[in-house]
Amino acid sequence: MQNQTRIIIENILPQLDGGVFPIKRIVGQNVHVTAAIFSDGHDVIESCVKFKHESDENWDEVRMIPTFNDEWFCEFKVEKQGFYTYFIEGWVDYALNWQHGTERKIQDNQYVKSELLEGAEYVKAVQQFADDSENDYLNKLVYFFSTESEYENAVIEATSHELKRIFKKYPTRFLANKSLELKVYVDRKKALFSTWYEFFPRSASQEEGKHGTFKDCERLLPRVAEMGFDTLYFPPIHPIGEVNRKGKNNATNAQPGDVGSPWGIGSQYGGHKSTHPELGSIDDFKELVRKAQELGIEVAMDYALQAAPDHPYVKNFPQWFKWRPDGTVQYAENPPKKYQDILPIYFESNDWKNLWKELLDVALFWVEECNIRVFRVDNPHTKPFYFWGWLIGEIKKIHPDVLFLAEAFTRPKIMNELAKQGFSQSYTYFTWRNSKKELTEYVQELTQSEQKEFYRPNFWPNTPDINPFPLQSGSESVHLQKYFLAATLSSSVGIYGPVFEYRICEPMAPGKEEYLNSEKYEYFKWNWDQENKITTLITKINSIRKEQVSLQQTNNIIFCDTNNDEVMAYYKFDDAKLSETLMVVSLDQHNVSRAMIKLPLEQLGNQPVHITDLITGNSYFWDKEWNFVELSPELPFHLFKIHR
Description:
The protein is of the alpha/beta class. It is 28% helix and 24% strand. The strands form seven sheets. It has an eight-stranded parallel β-sheet with strand order 20-19-18-13-12-11-22-21. Strands 2, 4, 5, 8, 9 and 10 form a six-stranded mixed β-sheet that branches. A six-stranded antiparallel β-sheet has the order 23-24-25-30-27-28, covered by helices on one side. Helix 2 packs antiparallel against helix 3 (132-146), helix 6 runs parallel beside helix 7 and helix 13 (476-489) runs parallel beside helix 15.
């Protein structure tokens, strides 16, 4: 391939899979771009990043800065939702090259009259772009460079910073080369910072033995808001199948009165565009969503693409299911778990285009009919990747505010691919990371590898499906520690609410991470008015998260050395370093933990620091690199604000 350009542009970061996928940002964040840029010979080269939003006609530009070994960097800010495109342009800059070479000759006491005459031509070339005050200066330079008697002034001005500034402002882009175009997708802030609370609406009733309704949920909204949660997630609210309905504790034979699993979607009362009749009507749900929004809460719906055996789809669109020779459909399985109440949708159907369209219509129905802007997607890893890329892209074309949380506990590459395909947030392995080493390594992987460009973690200590072994102890200290870690390591956090708050912990059986008497198969009457130490401290932590911008992002984190493996410490900061926090947490649920903490002094400007524990209000002055802390199981953490 023939190409006269002399500029090589390599190793551009950030980018994903050679530009196949966009990197992710939220409104107001910066994109820090680096690349190797060089040419043959010793000429002066320049480079820039050009970028624009999809709605803009013209490109903005920011110049790149060289560091060492032909590495360059710059950053630009994304200020609107949607797609941005960016690329690097590099060129040989003859004017700057002239100035650099002339300066070297002057330093060597060479006579540069010929060079000055050449410089006058470069000065004239930029005059058409310069403003009036700059042109006054440039006219003077043309005179100096062309007049023998002004040689001393000409030599001074030829190497001046002002001339260099003007040359850089109006570059001569000779033999320019450009990189491939890359993409950034920009979401609203909630994609990065959110605080989720999950409960089953059918357990919202105040009366023992009575199925809860959307109206009952309205009564609980102030409690959710007062605890500092901004996202209220409901398991599926659709009609529950009656065929093969599950009984208590996942029994395969339901007894009279058993309400079944909400994930067994569809019955004679409707499917994915209907609400369970005992919860209330769609109008009731719309009113609940509206009242939640008045309190600063967004209702997140469960988007579960599966069907109970009596879902209307099974009768009306049998081609969307894989039928066996005996005339049945194999129910869903995730060995050793069996879901006899669920039929998987057959995405390899010959009628896949109509299937995809219907599933898109389902999501759009709730977005446009009920103003839903957040979906928690059930088991997305069991559906085709490209389906998700298409569906999320189609929805965001019309409704860019809509966010998707991927509930996929599976292999790392699969979880990463879902995030690349467009999921706004993702469940993580945090639930199973317990030791200091495990937690540190996992968070560093999320924040220091390529994952930081596309994978937004949402840390959940528990879910209706997962009763983790550490929580099965029922220890108040472990529950406090787990929530603190989730809420301060990640900018998005969620809990399966009342079960976590009230330390419901008994497993289905020893060695099983499932709840005995799981709420997935029955409804409970909770004492929603009860407050305890866990609810109080969750409320406090959530309040601090809203105040401290450093906790509203995940990637700016540095782990601090400690001399106790049961004590973790980590420092977080926002991009502008206007908000800085230091977290210290004990992982020992039984004993008082003592440790020396090493401050990241370089990050703190090598100065003593004044810190305040935002949990207790106690203040300290740390003037040494290593400082002592003591933590008890009763309050196993410090959350320090660093004052400047």
